[in-house]
Design goal:
With 86 residues, the protein is mostly helical. The chain has four helices and no strands. The longest helix is centred in the first third of the chain and has 16 residues.
Length: 86
């Protein structure tokens, strides 16, 4: 199954909204999630876990806390999907 970048952005945005509780209208793709109130490390780990399950990929532990924005997560998902397709 192929996923368009727009679909991935939409899905990741919805996951961030559900797991961290930030209103969707405040979630720009380049928003630095590290500075958002309520985005503690536990919520970030739960969010990443949901992204991994949604796309059937694994994000390396050392990479998780380097992800700053939805765009970073989207690029990581795209890379994981591309690697899985090989």
């Amino acid at each position: 199954m192929t996923h368009s970048r727009d679909d991935i952005v939409h899905t990741v945005t919805e996951i961030v909204h559900r797991e961290i509780g930030i209103p969707v209208e405040r979630l720009a793709p380049d928003l630095d999630l590290r500075g958002v109130e309520g985005a503690d490390s536990v919520k970030v780990l739960v969010m990443i876990s949901r992204v991994e399950r949604t796309y059937g990929i694994e994000i390396e532990d050392e990479d998780v806390f380097t992800l700053r924005s939805i765009n970073d997560v989207v690029r990581t998902v795209e890379a994981g999907l591309a690697a899985a397709a090989v």
